[in-house]
Design goal:
This protein has one domain: Orthogonal Bundle (MetI-like fold). Helix content is 78%, strand content 0%. The protein is built from 10 helices and no strands.
Amino acid sequence: MTQADWDALRLSLVIALGATAWITIPGIAVGGLLGRRKLRGRALIESVVALPLVLPPVVTGFAVLYLSSPRGPLGSVWDAIGGTPAFTPWGAILASGIVAFPLLARSAAAAFAGVDERLVDTARGFGAGRVLILRSVIWPQTKAGIGSGVLLAFGRALGEFGATVIVAGNIPGMTQTIPSAIYQRVQIGDDAGALRLVLIAAILALATIGWATVILNRRSVVQ
């Protein structure tokens, strides 16, 4: 591997970890909301949450770029915290997190929907408070699904290209991730370099999916 390959790998991991970190709490919260058996406006909320899965990633990237531009609705917010995320790793973290968010939220929703309410009612009947119920009853039943969702979101952020390249560009050593490095190598005719990165991306994806599958299978065995 060349130094450029190592830089792309490092940036991919950092950006994916950053994206997963900032969407984890909101993703679990939205999943808990969607996991309720009675929820008004469920179809609308689910549609909004799933939108990044359906939209072309470049559309998501353009929306992020526009909203955070100096003239955009959130431009003043970014100015207050130090400038625009455009062409920075922060922009890539923001964009890839938005694209990965639905996988985490939907996995968490499925986990919360599977909670045995009888156990919750029993704990409540014994006088357990919300925090104790959450920690001792709900968390053990949902942690596998949430953990799997976190890993899937990480994998999605790791492989994101369209949204990140629109927001953060393709700057070697600064915002160039493995997908954008593959694109660049294909463009310049470096097929060997592109293939090398494709293999790395495939290995990372298989490892992430395999880990998520193991977590879910362990939950099934325990149940």
